[in-house]
Design goal:
about 65% helix, iron, transmembrane, SuccDH_FuR_B_TM-su, mainly alpha, 3 helical TM bundles of succinate and fumarate reductases, metal-binding, about 0% strand
């Protein structure tokens, strides 16, 4: 029996160290996410009327600006990829059988792709001016 602190031995050598890249990504994306999330919370909750201002019109006004679309898109992508990498690490640590590990990670990756694609589509195809009953100052006459 090997000692508990002995390093994990792979069956085949690899040329890249994906775990190192995953570790570095978690640290860098975590720092960027702190800025993105606290900026998001500050603008949505501290400026203006606070939580009472958040409604469909508020989101429509924010997403009329490419800056806020990009901000929210970056926050969505980084949060999703950061969380996926964390769950992937947990699966690698706790799934004992190779087949279980494979299928859990495949389910994780499929869910990640679905959330990223749908979230990106919502951010970029959202058109608050499409409903004629809603009139906002940023909507131009059609």
């Amino acid at each position: 029996m090997e000692t508990p602190r002995s390093p994990y031995k792979r069956n085949k050598p690899t040329r890249t160290n994906w775990e190192l890249y995953g570790w570095l990504f978690m640290r860098m994306s975590g720092l960027v996410l702190i800025v993105l999330v606290f900026g998001h919370l500050f603008v949505n909750l501290m400026m203006g009327e606070g939580i009472h201002q958040i409604d469909w019109g508020f989101v429509a006004g924010k997403w009329a600006s490419p800056f806020w679309q990009t901000w929210d898109l970056l926050m969505l992508w980084l949060a999703q990829l950061h969380g996926t990498n964390g769950v992937r690490t947990v699966i690698n640590d706790y799934a004992e059988r190779d087949a279980t590990r494979f299928w859990l990670k495949m389910a994780l990756y499929v869910a990640t792709v679905i959330v990223i694609v749908v979230g990106t589509l919502v951010i970029f195809t959202f058109d608050p001016c499409a409903d004629p009953s809603q009139t906002f100052s940023f909507c131009t006459a059609r």
